[in-house]
Amino acid sequence: MTNFDGVTAGLGKALEDRGYDKPTPVQIAIMAPELEHVDLLVSAQTGSGKTVAFGISIASTLLGNQATFKKVNSPLAIIIAPTRELALQVKSELNWLYASTNALVASCVGGMDIRSERRSLEKGAHIVVGTPGRLCDHIKRKSLDLSSIKAVVLDEADEMLNMGFREELEIILKASAVDRRTLMFSATVPKTIVTLAKRYQRDAIRVNVSSDQEQHRDIEYCAYTVSNNERENAIINILRFYNAKTAIVFCATRALVNRMTNRFTNRGFSVVALSGELSQNQRMHALQAIRDGRAKVCIATDVAARGIDLPNLELVIHSDLPKNRESLLHRSGRTGRAGRKGVSSVIVSSGAKKRAERLFQSAKINAKWSGPPTLHEIMQRDDERILLDPILSNPLQDGEIKLVKKLTSIHSPEQLAVAFMRAYRSGQSAPEELSVDEKFESEMDTNNSRNQRRNKPSKSKRDKNNREKIQEKFGDAEWFSLSVGRKHTAEARWVLPALIRAGGVDKQDIGAIRILENKTFFEVASRSAEKFLSNLGPSRKLEKSMTVDRIGNMPAELANNKSDQNKLENSDEAVIGDSKDLRTQTEDYYRKPSKVKKKKFNKTNKNKGKRKRSNKNPDTNDRKEEKLIIKSESKVKAKKNKKKSMNKHENKNPQTQGFSTLTRKKV
């Protein structure tokens, strides 16, 4: 094992069996002979192989010249990690690394049975891995004796301080043997880490192996500019576009995690959530669902996702802009590992583009800027996946020949191809039709845009003209119903893409979409109605639980309301055309007539209001005259009040003011 020369024999064999052919930069730095028995402050990013690095580093300190561990009464090493998942992951790594040394590795983490942990410690654990809070509990209960500790490792020390574990760390370090060796691993080295190192380390050597460019060379960074209200829709389209084996979406708050989890589940994604409110059991089940492939998308907060290792993670989505470069690199560093390619997608909302550019610049990252994937791009990518699907090239099995012959004798190749295509698409969530964010469009000349606004017709005329143009172009149509409504979170902006995709029609073939409480009605151009039904197939399924029925003429529920636009307030409607996006049409085409604002009467003009209402049918001239009288009266009253206030403050001399007041009192 030439690449791991100098490593303890047992560990070298374990690395070779595990398939390690060459060490990472942090492992090379740690194996330097001059760093063998000294305290270290190591700056290294997530995914750099630091668990194996400190495992190698402390081996000589713990074993000395021995090949295996002897029985002990108290631990020889303690590893402190910020989260349960990271601690359990470290324990798993050390178990295989120290397998040939007869080492007993115990874990002490919150959420697990403390009695079981105590029994493991009593058996004589050589290495203990735990979280700060639970380790302190064992120290206070005197079930953890650190008097014989030879090495202490703080993994992700900066994160532990950020999470408020400073007091717990100090308790653990003070309880440890004075002549111990202390290793601190941190993605960043702020002043708080330097202070902690000075206090609890002895002549520590600083090792900096944060080669961001080297580590993130297999990660493609994409920045998607979206409007604030399109953030979740953009994430849906990104997930659909990449169709990653495993993806993680980072959110700022627990509430956002819960909302996205519910919405994405309803949209057909296999999702699990990770946030601080989950119990340890729930977290373990969620992670297991990701690992065994039952779930493909993990939605998590930063803290809850610390230390988790997701297999085949191909896509990282930042639903909000990371606070700093370290957070961006730490989140993104979960993908693009072990030579595999990964994508890190950053959602940049309106007004945050400059801040995002500065963030990328500080992290030395060249991000590709664009809008989120469109409906057309996603459909195109789906077509490519269908053509390259491995199932098409798999050899025919003996048990399948009979059915294949029967199918080919009954159906044409085109029918079988259509069936395969529909089966593939039926399992996919419908992408979103996104509106364009004007803030990220090319800048226009201010004067020209002002002149254009000046020359534009009034809103009502514009709406009327647009309606007439769209209806004239659309022509005759047939009405259809869909078995979901507002009660089932139906929205025109995702119903439209689903209709286009399943029906094999264009956007121009879909007319009005009216969403009621329990069902949705929509128009299909007569020229495309038969094609639409044919593509849906006999089941008339749009997606898993959505059925389409042909109605023909306008349904009674809508016909009753046709004469009165005010009655449409209980339905969402949209008319689709070439010139406008879906959102604009939804807002403009069926905009309700504006209501006349009622005049508010406050206390000062209460009489004025009464006077005005008492004359129910005044003559036009009388009405004008009355208004003028009221106006003049209010002006006179205002002048009098102003004059009084001026007289009150006219004399600025305090002595004179006092005399004046006394005189008035006497009178």
If you had to describe this structure to a student in words, what would you say it looks like?
The chain has 667 residues and is α/β, with parallel strands linked by helices. The chain folds into four domains: 209 residues, P-loop containing nucleotide triphosphate hydrolases (Rossmann fold), CATH 3.40.50.300; 165 residues, Rossmann fold (3-Layer(aba) Sandwich); 130 residues, 2-Layer Sandwich (Alpha-Beta Plaits); 47 residues. The protein is 45% helix and 15% strand. The chain has a seven-stranded parallel sheet, with helices on both faces. α5 links the parallel β3 and β4. α6 packs across α8 and α11 runs parallel beside α16. The C terminus is likely disordered.
Helix content: 40-55%
Structural class: alpha/beta
What is the top-level CATH class of the largest domain?
Answer: Alpha Beta
Radius of gyration, in angstroms, nearest whole number: 35 Å
According to CATH, the fold-level topology of the largest domain is Rossmann fold
Shape: elongated
Major beta sheet, specifics? 7 strands, parallel
User: Which strand order does the major sheet show?
Assistant: 3-4-2-5-6-1-7
- Helix count equals 27
Which percent band covers the strand fraction? 5-15%
Please provide the count of β strands. Answer: 20
**Distance between termini?**
112 Å
Number of domains as seen in the coordinates: 4
Classified in CATH, the superfamily of the largest domain is P-loop containing nucleotide triphosphate hydrolases
Low-confidence stretches: 438-451, 563-620, 648-667
Quickly give the CATH architecture of the largest domain. Answer: 3-Layer(aba) Sandwich
Mean pLDDT: 78
